Amino acid sequence: MNHTRSFNDKLFLVLKGLGMGAANKVPGVSGGVVAFVAGFYQEFIYSLKKVNGKAFKLLINGRFKSFFNYINGRFLGLLFLGMIISYFSISKILDYLILHYELYVWSVFFGMIIGSIYYINKDFNDWNNKTILSICLGIAIGLGISFLNPAKENDNLLFVFFCGIISVSGMTLPGFSGSFILILLGNYVLLLIDSVNALYDTISDTFSGNFDFIYNETRIRMLKVLAVFTLGSVTGLVTFSHVLSYILKHYKSITTASIIGFIIGSLGVVWPWKKTIYKYLDNGALMLDSRGEKIIENYKRYIPELTTETYIAIGFILLGLMIVIALEIYGQKQKKHV
Fold this sequence. Notes:
mainly alpha
């Protein structure tokens, strides 16, 4: 771990957090890929692994500085700061761009994932029967997930906790999109839109001195759902990091091959040329969420005709590739300075 970070390093860590936060918000894109390509994946997993019994003992005993240093707090703090900023800024811009320029946004992400596959694969030379089988299984699981039909919404708190554990897979496991998994589990709208809106409304009401929400059963239910989802996410983050840290240490080649497979499989989710299929009520009307937005059920993919729009989209795919190359060049420069 690098304890002596320059101002530029700290700034870039926040920017990397912005990138991870934006990627995690988009169904089909994994924040873990950003961590892998930007060269801080192993430090991220290692730092999360430090959130353990010893860390909690330091915290309970009031040894805050020791706790901060033990968990690599500066690194995690800057990264999570970037993710939080992203949630209130970049992800909002992304929502707008997806609404108005959906094809081009998906094209950029498609290009970035192709670049990520090249980036991870070029330094991987340990090909044998086990790693070939691992990459094939990774591709099969990634593609299989991308073509599953979503389940119905379920606000059972035990299931919500499970959703929290699964949703952070996109942060810790490159190629697995946590938000797309939530769509498949049927709880994307409930957990990433409705419950978050309930929190916004509650904070707004509290600041304006209005505490009527205490008697609003629906609001209280949503806040409980968000609390349990957050608890599940934290549990998943710490648990996944311990498991991944162990398998990266003992089965690095097999794990890396599986990750390459997952990322290749995820290309099915981010294929730019697709039509969005929305959910409908029994009476044929469109199903809307708490914001009045249409609810996505899945995507129907197709091969595009060679039109001007298609050529522009291909240009954006190349832009996505260039972003990954720029990240790689920056990563190589950082290694030289260490």
